[in-house]
């Protein structure tokens, strides 16, 4: 009975029973067929089912016993959940397309009748199944014991479920059920890569039907990737208007063309307006052209995110910029570093070629470091592919190319490969060119699976020696580097440990120049390209820096500094006009940058299970490769006097520190609220924690800068005061100098009231012989030593903070000068001068002079002082004055 007739009969029955209360219109959604425009009426119909539980149990067993591997393992729980209670599967579909169900309804012709009688279609016995109609007819003849002319078969109009047809894919494409050559050669496969959302609908059914029909698993490994969503974590859908066509990301598209695509959808006006506004907000200038390589690299680096990928076009564009860097760096290396006359090495094997350059006696610490980092990249890529952790491999390639090869090693090679070098330097340049060539060759091979187009183009431009066994016509068939081939290059505890400190020093020097607003050469008359720098570190660290050649090869050219002094003695450092910074090898190990893979959605927080026990970010990849040793440290003293406005920089730093402390207090207050833990999403709490760490690190750096600036300001004030005191010393300064009474006794002169300068007073009281005699060279040396002595005496009298440091340097200089034995007196004269008298008096005024002068290595200075005293043996009064001033020491 049709529904319209049924309604009339129902109403009549209700009226007869006295239950009819009336009728009224009821607004409702009436489903209309898009094709025929008829009202759709759901009806119950007989369906075909497939019993699955037995096959599901076998599929569970295959995973449990390790014959089938599901990656990541968290999806095994989903696999078991679906299959443990697997209901019969309805495989019938009432559609116009698809594979028709191979089931035939039987009609029988009676012995005394010419008409066929249809059997009840709801009875299972009235159906036969066969691969073909002929096979089904044979089964019907045997089942009903009739000849073919007494039977009529009618195939069911239903079609198989799409997933039923899809589950046959692994073997149906090879000619199954026939045992074709393709079927025997290519079935079963090895790896299936697909989305985790169809784990049961397709993957499980392929496994079940494959085991049932062929007795073999269709594949032994299943890799389930994440689902691509928009940048806000929403599912891409045409009905939402947020779907992104990969072709538009590859080729680029304007905002107008992007919005025109929405007009061809099925959005109503309100949804269309909302979709337009969202596109205008997310892509105000459209989608930039990113290229296939950048999109593939971005998606592979995103797979760490777990269940969902929040695709940010800006990140894809960032990898396009990486492609540009890769292109420019390789071309620069080819045409400027290697040059047209470069002869590529004959590569019999990658391992032999790399070990050959590693054993060269001219190799430097930086060369060994880049080879070690190449070995690390090979190892990380291998582990990434082995464990299906593709972000591990992409991060290794990205870091090696951008931060190690381009930022460091290419810059290191520039001064070395300049033409016109000496023979020994040219040999080293050739070694550097070979190392650079091998790094380019291996680096392109490592990157090729992720960026096949640009790496292939660059690989074809590399020069090759036809005699090499490793020459390949294309990267597609070239040998991929293996960790065992580069194992000998890895030096984690050696050059990599040393270079972490070197890299930190370079970054800190650059950061200090930027933080203190130091102009580069050409921007100001007082600026210099290279700034004087002193380095203080323990002896083992200094030995590593010097023996590896890191200071001259890397720190000075890349840090734009001139290493004036390296020492392990704090007393030898001249801190005047310097800012101070402590550098650790661990400064650059863990980046505070938020991992873009795990930002932006609530779902990202729950996806942490995906990476449980694994590396969770690019910075973690770096940190995990660090040996558990104490990080090397050193101290930098950068001379900025005359380069910066100390007062202005102090004011800037104080203002920035004030705002920074306000931000820290505000963030701390928000995190201290009682409802913070319960109401704030996990991702927001993690972001706040990272932000707090960044703010505190910057605050500590600013406090260190402020302390250095305050010290410099104090030093400037003291220096100005000292200069004023030296230029106009008071009479008490003159009268307290121990040389004044000695000179008075020698020459009989008295202090001139019109002379206020201490050095001028001493010279006025002296005789020409004491001033060095008639030779200009001797007189110049006397003046120089006298000037130093007067300066130190004034510092000591004023209790200036520079006294001890300058005195130590002065004493070391005297010891070295007199140790040569080529002279009896300081001015290289044959008699005592003011240089000897003033210098000796300064030496004995030092607090620790008694202990210092008794050392074995200072015997020659004791003899020098005795010669000074004995030279005045004919002048008893002068000798007594000297003995009172010098003898007691």
Plain-language structure description:
The chain is α/β, with parallel strands linked by helices and 889 residues long. It has 5 domains: 49-225, HUPs (Rossmann fold), CATH 3.40.50; 227-289, no CATH class; 313-490, Orthogonal Bundle (Isoleucyl-tRNA Synthetase, Domain 1); 494-719, no CATH class; 729-887, Glutathione S-transferase Yfyf (Class Pi), Chain A, domain 2 (Up-down Bundle), CATH 1.20.1050. It contains 35 helices and 17 strands. Strands 5, 6, 7 and 8 form a 4-stranded antiparallel sheet that branches. β5 and β6 (116-118) form a beta hairpin. α12 packs across α13 and α16 runs antiparallel to α17. The protein is elongated, with a radius of gyration of 44 Å. Residues 35-312 form the Aminoacyl-tRNA synthetase class Ia domain. It comes from Fasciolopsis buskii.
For the sheet with most strands, the description reads: 4 strands, antiparallel
Helix proportion of residues, in percent? 40-55%
**In terms of quaternary structure, what is this?**
single chain
Structure classification: alpha/beta
Keywords: Aminoacyl-tRNA synthetase, ATP-binding, Coiled coil, Cytoplasm, Ligase, Nucleotide-binding, Protein biosynthesis
GO molecular function: ATP binding; valine-tRNA ligase activity
Coiled coil: 650-725
Enzyme class: ligase
Identify the notable features of this structure and list them briefly.
alpha/beta; Isoleucyl-tRNA Synthetase, Domain 1; Rossmann fold; 5 domains; 4-stranded antiparallel beta sheet; valine--tRNA ligase; elongated; 4-stranded mixed beta sheet; 889 residues
């Amino acid at each position: 009975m049709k529904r319209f007739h049924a309604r009339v009969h129902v109403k009549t029955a209700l009226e007869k029973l006295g239950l009819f209360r009336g009728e009224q219109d009821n607004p409702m959604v009436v489903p209309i067929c898009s094709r025929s425009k008829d009202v759709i009426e759901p009806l119950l119909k007989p369906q075909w089912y497939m019993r699955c539980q037995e096959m599901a149990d076998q599929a569970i067993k295959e995973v449990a016993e390790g014959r089938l591997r599901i990656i990541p393992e968290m999806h095994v729980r989903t696999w078991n959940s679906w299959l443990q209670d697997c209901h019969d599967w309805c495989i019938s579909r009432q559609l116009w397309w698809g594979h028709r169900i191979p089931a035939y309804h039987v009609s029988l012709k009676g012995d005394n009748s010419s008409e066929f009688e249809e059997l009840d279609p709801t009875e299972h016995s009235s159906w036969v199944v066969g691969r073909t109609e002929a096979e089904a007819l044979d089964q019907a003849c045997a089942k009903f014991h009739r000849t073919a002319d007494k039977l009529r078969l009618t195939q069911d109009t239903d079609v198989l479920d799409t997933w039923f047809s899809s589950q046959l894919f692994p073997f149906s494409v090879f000619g199954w059920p026939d045992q074709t050559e393709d079927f025997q050669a290519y079935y079963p496969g090895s790896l299936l890569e697909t989305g985790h959302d169809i784990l049961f609908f397709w993957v499980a059914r392929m496994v079940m039907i494959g085991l049932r029909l062929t007795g073999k698993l269709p594949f032994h490994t299943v890799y389930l990737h994440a689902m691509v969503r928009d940048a806000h974590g929403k599912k891409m859908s045409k009905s939402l208007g947020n779907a992104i066509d990969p072709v538009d990301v590859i080729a680029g598209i304007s905002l107008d063309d992007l919005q025109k695509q929405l007009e061809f959808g099925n959005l109503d006006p309100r949804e269309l307006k909302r979709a337009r506004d969202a596109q205008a907000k997310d892509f105000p200038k459209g989608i930039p052209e990113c290229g296939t390589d950048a999109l593939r690299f971005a998606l592979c680096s995103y797979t760490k995110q777990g269940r969902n990928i929040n695709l940010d076009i800006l990140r894809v564009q960032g990898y396009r910029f990486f492609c540009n860097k890769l292109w420019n760096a390789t071309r620069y290396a080819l045409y400027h570093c290697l040059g047209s006359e470069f002869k590529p090495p004959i590569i019999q094997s990658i391992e032999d070629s790399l070990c050959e350059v590693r054993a060269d006696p001219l190799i430097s610490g930086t060369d060994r470091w880049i080879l070690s980092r190449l070995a690390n990249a090979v190892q990380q890529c291998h582990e990434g592919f082995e464990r299906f952790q593709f972000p591990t491999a992409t991060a290794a390639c990205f870091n090696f190319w951008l931060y190690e090869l381009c930022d460091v090693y290419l810059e290191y090679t520039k001064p070395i490969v300049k033409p016109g070098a000496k023979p020994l330097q040219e040999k080293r340049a050739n070694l550097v060119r070979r190392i650079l060539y091998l790094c380019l060759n291996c680096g392109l091979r490592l990157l090729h699976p992720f960026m096949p187009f640009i790496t292939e183009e660059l690989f074809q431009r590399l020069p090759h020696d036809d005699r090499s066994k490793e020459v390949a016509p294309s990267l597609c068939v070239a040998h991929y580097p293996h960790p065992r081939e580069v194992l000998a290059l890895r030096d984690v505890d050696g050059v990599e440990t040393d270079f972490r400190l070197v890299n930190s020093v370079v970054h800190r020097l650059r950061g200090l120049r930027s933080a203190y607003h130091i102009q580069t050469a050409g921007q100001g008359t007082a600026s210099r390209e290279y700034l004087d720098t002193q380095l203080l570190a323990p002896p083992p660290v200094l030995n590593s820096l010097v023996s590896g050649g890191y200071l001259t090869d890397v720190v000075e050219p890349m840090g734009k500094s001139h290493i004036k002094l390296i020492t392990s003695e704090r007393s030898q450092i001249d801190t005047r006009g310097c800012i101070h910074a402590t550098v650790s090898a661990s400064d650059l190990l863990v980046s505070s940058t938020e991992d873009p893979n795990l930002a932006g959605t609530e779902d990202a927080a729950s996806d942490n299970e995906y990476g449980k026990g694994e590396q969770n970010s690019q910075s973690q990849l770096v940190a995990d490769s660090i040996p558990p040793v104490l990080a090397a440290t050193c101290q930098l003293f950068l001379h900025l006097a005359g380069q910066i406005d100390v007062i202005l920089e102090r004011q800037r730093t104080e203002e920035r520190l004030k705002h920074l402390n306000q931000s820290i207090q505000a963030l701390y207050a928000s995190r201290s609220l009682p409802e913070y833990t319960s109401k704030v999403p996990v991702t927001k709490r993690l972001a706040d924690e990272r932000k707090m760490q960044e703010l505190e690190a910057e605050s500590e750096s600013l406090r260190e800068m402020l302390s250095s600036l305050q010290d410099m300001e104090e030093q400037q004030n003291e220096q100005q005061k000292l200069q004023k005191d030296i230029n106009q010393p008071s009479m008490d300064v003159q009268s307290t100098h121990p040389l004044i009474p000695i000179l008075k006794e020698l020459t009989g002169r008295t202090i001139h009231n019109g002379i206020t300068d201490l050095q001028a007073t001493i010279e006025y009281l002296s005789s020409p012989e004491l001033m060095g005699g008639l030779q200009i060279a001797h007189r110049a040396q006397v003046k120089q030593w006298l000037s130093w002595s007067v300066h130190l005496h004034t510092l000591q009298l004023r209790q200036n903070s520079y006294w001890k440091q300058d005195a130590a340097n002065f004493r070391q200089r005297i010891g070295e000068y007199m140790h040569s034995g080529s002279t009896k007196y300081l001015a290289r004269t044959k008699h005592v001068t003011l240089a000897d008298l003033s210098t000796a008096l300064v030496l004995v005024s030092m607090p620790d002079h008694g202990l210092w002068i008794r050392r074995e290595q200072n015997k020659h200075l004791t003899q020098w002082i005795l010669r000074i005293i004995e030279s005045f043996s004919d002048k008893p009064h002068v000798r007594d004055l000297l003995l009172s001033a010098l003898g007691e020491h």
